[in-house]
Amino acid sequence: MSAVRRVFFPLRVAAAAGFAALVLSGAAVAQQAQPEAAEGAMGAIDIAALIGDSVSNPSDARYSDVAEAIQRFRNRDQLSARTFLERAVQKDPKLPPVGVLMAKLQLLSGNAAGVRPALEQAVQEDSAGDPEPYLLLAEEALAGGRTIEADALFDKAVSMIQSYDANAKRKRQFEIRAYRGRAIIGERRQDWEQAESDLRKWIEQDPEEPSAYQRLGQVLFQFQTDAKDAEGFAAFKKAKELNKELPSPYVSAALMYSRNGKTDRAMQSFEKAFSESGTDQTTLIAYAQALVKANQLQKAETVLKKAREVATNVDSVWLLSGVTARMAGDNKAAEQYLMRALSLSPMNRDVLNQLSLVLLESEAEGAKARALQFAQLNQQLNQNNPDINVTLAWVLFQNGDARNATAALRQGLQGGALSPDGSFLLAKILLVRDDKTNAKRLLESALKSDQGIFVERKEAEQILGTL
Questions:
Q1: CA 368 to CA 156: how far, in whole Å?
Q2: Interacting residues of 194 by C-beta distance below 8 A, sequence separation 6+
Q3: pLDDT (tens digit, 9 = 90+) per residue, 343-381?
Q4: Are 153 and 134 in contact (CB under 8 A)?
Q5: CA–CA dist 292, 301 (Å, integer)
Q6: Residue 229 burial class via C-beta count within 10 angstroms: exposed 0-12, middle 13-18, buried 19 and up
């Protein structure tokens, strides 16, 4: 979705993108599925997903027993599926143990609840010396946010991988998965030395994987030394060479400088990226966001004008253009840009939110009623989002509906942390109620935040100055 969304309302990042995303390239995400989803996952199981990490040519006719086992599993006949897998493993001992294959069938079918029991059974029966059960359990724990458990399991897997010699291809995949997982743990704990070490070991086994270099670059910048920054930039450059869809290495470096509070160096990197490729939409959007956040609105509009030319159908370009115009006090242009963004993404939360507030500030006839319509629609689509509920409360107050405004406000306060702009609107509501003490506290907290673009920063500073 929108690149700008991450700036306005920073999302609460999930621990991992899903168990199966860590485990099986191209496999269905393992989750406790509804019946319809489970049926779809069953149909998606194929030989390559099941044994492609173990053999060079999974479509070879000699793996017909594996194909038959998958069909029997689809038919809910697990006993027959196991029998055919046993035959397949007897023919080719380089295949994973039968217990592991049965666990992976559970995973691929979307039956997350069946994976752990299958792995426990596998270790007891035929897989005690195989590293994969421990890797699968480690990846499950990592995806579930159980970092201590994942750490111990990855360490156990690594110790077993070192002596594993049954299948060179499987061993390589094990090493990639283990070091990738341990690197995530290092990043979570901000143990940059561990993360760097494990990422480099991952790269040794998979030197053509762009995401490994991209992550290595991010980790190296966390050391915040010139030497490590240079190594990080080289890693970003390598990642870009391997995957042209990745951002410019200058943009990646700029984002890391910005994260580390080095605004001047971030802007220098953005300038280099812009001069190197002034038509790349990722560069244009990232640079414009940085300029807006730094309140360099005129320069941001110059960059956005180019972005609107080269990325006409990208909603985030028009959203950011609308916000920039709003911050510059041009609400007419802001409304036009936001309506364009809405036409491209009719249910975009941030577009609806900004459009509600722009219309609320308009003097045009019927504008406040339209603002309320957009705010109510947004709340229906995002009922538990605190910012959206607070926006609705503010719009309701401005439309003279104090009773429903109070209900929306109550729901907003139950939804979690507010963005700086959400805190600003809450402070304005409190001021309507003459609660200056809490309004001041909210404004001070919002102004200290650096989590993204604070659209109403200027007015927040003005109001705080009067309290």
A1: 62
A2: 182, 183, 185, 186
A3: 999 999 999 999 999 999 998 999 999 999 999 999 999
A4: yes
A5: 9
A6: buried
The whole-angstrom separation of Cα 264 and Cα 464 is 28
pLDDT band with cut points at 50, 70 and 90 for residue 29: very low
Structure confidence by residue, pLDDT tens digits, 383-415: 999 999 999 999 999 999 999 999 999 988 887
How many CB atoms sit inside 10 A of residue 218's CB? 21
Mean pLDDT of the chain: 89
> Model's pTM, two decimal places?
0.81
pLDDT at 113: 87
Tokens matching residue 455: 């659209």
Residue 214 near residue 245, CB atoms below 8 Å = no
> Binning pLDDT at 50, 70 and 90, where does residue 22 land?
very low
Three-class secondary structure of residue 179 per DSSP: helix
Phi then psi dihedrals of residue 100, to 5 deg:
-65, -40
CA distance 377 to 345: 14
- CB 13, CB 456: distance < 8 Å: no
User: Does residue 7 surpass a pLDDT of 80?
Assistant: no
Tell me which DSSP letter residue 248 carries.
Answer: P
The total number of residues shown for the chain amounts to 467
Confidence of residue 161 (pLDDT cuts 50, 70, 90): very high
Instruction: Name residue 58's amino acid.
Output: P
Burial letters 85-99, b for 16+ CB under 10 A, else e: beebbeebeebbbbb
Beta carbons of 213 and 203 less than 8 angstroms apart: yes
Q: Where are the alpha helices (DSSP H) in 33-128?
A: 35-44, 47-51, 64-74, 78-91, 98-108, 112-125
First-to-last alpha carbon distance for the chain, in angstroms, is: 39
